[in-house]
Amino acid sequence: MNAGTHESLVLNVDDNDGARYAKTRILTRAGLRVIEAASGGEALQAAQEHHPDLVLLDMKLPDIHGMEVCRMLKQDAATSSILVLQTSASYLSSADKIRALDGGADNYLFEPIEPEELVANVRALLRLGRVERQLRESDRQKDEFLATLAHELRNPLGPIRNAVELLRQLGGDSHEQQEQARHTIVRQTNHLVRLVDDLLDVSRINQGKITLRREPAELSAFIGAAQETVQPIMQARQHALSVSLPPQTVTLFGDSVRLAQIVGNLLHNAAKFTPVGGRIALDATLDANTLVLRISDNGIGVPATSAGRIFELFAQAQHVPDRVQDGLGIGLSLVKKLVELHGGSVSVSSAGEGLGSTFEVRLPVMQASAPAQSAQQAPAASGTSGGYRILVVDDSVDSASMLCALLEISGHTVLTSHTGKDAIAAATQFHPEIIFLDIGLPDMTGYEVAARMRRLPDMDSVKLVALTGYGQEKDKQDAKAAGFDHHLVKPINFDALTALTTRP
Asked: Using one digit for the tens of pLDDT, what is the confidence trace for 243-253?
């Protein structure tokens, strides 16, 4: 109801049948949809049921005064955003108008009203209403983005901090663990750089400051570069990636770095929303002088209601805050902008929720190689004996392995799991005394895992510690309600970790 005035809904409230009919006829002829009410009670009920964009409200009503109806509409959270244009043929003084506006009315007109004046006032208020809704939506998106940004920056900072702490405690003969810690720092630092680069790229494109360095770009070359950028997340999530390229050489006239970024972002997106052990396929074909790239997965899919906005900035289809992984809702927006700069198009299709999705990119080619494949398995970690028996559950292999290493060097026996299902099974067999449980897991939330674990035999005395990038008071309350004993915000403070794992 906010695309234009022809789609806007007006509630016309007047107990005078003739006056109500005349105003409805004027507004309908102007392309507006109109519903009617003959009393204040009817008006309040219609506002709740139909949520019109504007209420054209007469002052003299048989049951409730128009000013009181306006006040009730504006005080109710469900109807407070509805615009109110009050009219009156009886209350004609400036004091009446001031009283109505102070009571919440958005405008006030004295009757009789010329048809052109009525239509102009209604349209002006509807325009203001659309701007106000857009501002509210922008403000909501800003708040959501800032919360997600804080979460995503904390995720790589956790393993970086733990790796640094591990390096500080390791002796000179622990070369393998030192190398593992150094690799973790490099990987997660690269991830932070990627987040910042995406933010800067979007800003540059929106300001028209980005230019493509066009040159002949060979398909297999930028596909290979894209595969390298997503290899860590593919390995960590144990995804099987299949790549199929045309047998002939395919060359585009474009920016090879940006073309690799397009493919890399789409592969990264597929990896984020595909469960551990899932399948991802990249297929490239030629359609006359057009290269068609299809990136398919068997992940969570895209609901039909989200397909139209999935390429918007900061949008994440089927977004569940506790399951956001490595993303700010920038990647797909950046893909769309870069594809369009290359004279191409991008679209998404999905059979529905839980049935995977396919992103299709179409790009012009200059002319019409062996396909590359990658299928990796994630490393597993296990602990040594001593101290507490601790289960670490985190879908980030780096986060889990660094926390595991810190706990092992402190003398604890540690086991790691990367999904909620595996964690529940591990808790049954391993009988941990402490469980560090990430909230954002690929198959279920940490809250669900905690609730199920608490129902297992002999789990009452186990210390459950929530790990999350979200640290607001509501997050702490949710963790407590789910059965957690403690709530730690990533990156974990080593002193807090030591305090939780030191026997009294």
From this structure: 999 988 899 99
Strands 279-287 and 290-297: antiparallel
Could you read off the pLDDT of 444-463 as tens digits, one per residue? 899 999 999 999 988 888 99
Q: Look up residue 319 and give its two tokens.
A: 């977004």
List Cβ neighbours of 504 (8 Å cut-off, separation of 6 or more). none
Q: Which residues of 166-193 are buried (b: 16+ CB within 10 A; e: fewer)?
A: beeebeeebeebbebbeebbebbeebee
CB 439, CB 446: distance < 8 Å: yes
Q: Using CA atoms, how far apart are residues 160 and 137, in angstroms rounded to an integer?
A: 35
Q: Which residue is associated with the tokens 């209604």?
A: 122
Q: Which residues make Cβ contacts (< 8 Å) with residue 368, sequence separation at least 6? A: 246, 248, 249, 250, 286, 289
Burial of 394 (0-12, 13-18, 19+ CB in 10 A): buried
A 10 A CB-CB count for 425 gives 12
Predicted TM-score of the model (pTM)? 0.44
What does the block give as tokens for 97? 């108008």
Answer yes or no: are the C-beta atoms of 269 and 252 closer than 8 Å: no
CB 13 within 8 A of CB 63: no
Residue count of the chain: 504
Query: Closest Cα partner for 369 from 225, 250, 226, 230?
Result: 250
Longest dimension (CA), the chain: 95
User: Which residue, 244, 251, 478, 482, is CA-closest to 364?
Assistant: 251
Which of these, 450, 447, 489, lies nearest to 471 by C-alpha position?
489
SS3 content of the chain, % helix, strand, coil (to 5): 45, 20, 35
In sequence order, which residues have a C-beta less than 8 Å from that of residue 104 and are 6 or more positions away? 70, 71, 73, 74, 84
> Contact 357/344 with Cβ under 8 angstroms?
no
Torsion from C-alpha of 74, 75, 78, 84, nearest 10 degrees: -10
